[in-house]
Design brief:
By secondary structure, the chain is α/β, with parallel strands linked by helices. It is 47% helix and 22% strand. It is built from 12 helices and 11 strands. It starts with a helix and ends in an 8-residue tail after the last helix.
Length: 294
């Protein structure tokens, strides 16, 4: 079992202060300070640097925090699995989803999940592919859905849903040619985004190196494209409304195939909670051409 001192340490780090951690844990600040002092004495090393500006983890503290956090996640998963043997399908399921899937597709699936299993509590983290992979590796997420194809022996990966990417421009953009595509400014997502990775692959296929502007929000990219700043490449799920209203137009170039997949990730573990299995079942009902990724 995870010791109380480890739980206190993680709370101090995540709350950013001894006072806030004490309030969250319903403890006194001296008690919290005592736990941290006890831990540092047992390890014979300082973990947290204190200053007038607050607290900061040193390298030893970073190591302890990473493993303590992972151990807490494993303990929580263990409790849920044991309770699943005796109780109905209920409890949390922690999901990490890409912006496209998480904002435009997942809500409908979650509505079906909680309607069928009222006791299930989805906890959703909307992030880019790199962050979601880290969450799966550290056992902080039960399920991940990303747009990047990966090969990792520590993670189960399957195709989940086929998607089509569209090159989009504002309504006044002329018919596309390779020269116009290269001369245009392209709006792209941040590093670690599956959409950005796919877009960079398309640039290589076209053998172009256009000027780019990075934005970390799909909505911001759509607004920028609609304002005439440049082009972008986005999932059909994210631009349907703008195409229907005429604010954006889809640009076709040489009937280029721009299909991709969303990928379903689960940790390489022996058991999944009943809540996780319930969501996996619903996700697989939406899957198109599901099969293992080699």
């Amino acid at each position: 079992m995870i010791t109380q001192v480890a739980k206190v340490f993680v709370s101090v780090v995540e709350e950013g202060s001894f006072t806030r951690a004490a309030h969250m844990l319903h403890m006194t600040q001296p008690a919290v300070s005592g736990y941290i002092k006890q831990l540092e004495e047992e390890l014979d090393i300082t973990l947290i640097e204190r200053s007038t500006r607050g607290i900061r983890l040193n390298p030893a503290g970073e190591i302890y925090y990473h493993h303590a956090k992972e151990a807490l996640s494993i303990e929580s998963r263990m409790h849920h699995l044991i309770h699943d043997l005796q109780e109905e399908t209920k409890g949390p399921v922690k999901i990490g989803a890409s912006y496209t899937y998480g904002e435009y597709i997942l809500p409908t699936i979650l509505a079906k999940l909680v309607e069928k299993y009222p006791g299930v509590v989805p906890e959703v983290q909307i992030s880019n592919s790199a962050s979601i992979m880290e969450g799966i590796h550290s056992s902080n997420l039960d399920i991940g859905i990303i747009e990047d194809e990966i090969a990792d022996s520590r993670v189960n990966v399957t195709h989940l849903l086929k998607d089509s990417m569209y090159i989009v421009a504002n309504a006044s953009f002329p018919a596309a040619s390779l020269q116009k595509l290269e001369a245009a400014t392209w709006l792209i997502r941040e590093e670690g985004s599956g959409t950005r990775h796919y877009q960079e692959q398309v640039f290589k296929r076209l053998d172009i190196q256009p000027k780019t502007i990075t934005l970390s929000s799909t909505q911001a990219i759509k607004n920028a494209v609609g304002s005439g700043i440049g082009l972008s490449m986005l999932s059909r799920h994210t631009v349907q409304h703008e195409l229907e209203t005429g604010r954006l137009q889809r640009i076709d170039y040489n009937d280029m195939n721009l299909d991709r997949y969303f990928y379903l990730l689960t940790p390489e573990v022996r058991f999944h909670s009943a809540s996780t299995l319930a969501l996996l079942s619903l996700l697989n009902e939406t899957a198109i051409e599901p099969h293992e990724v080699s």
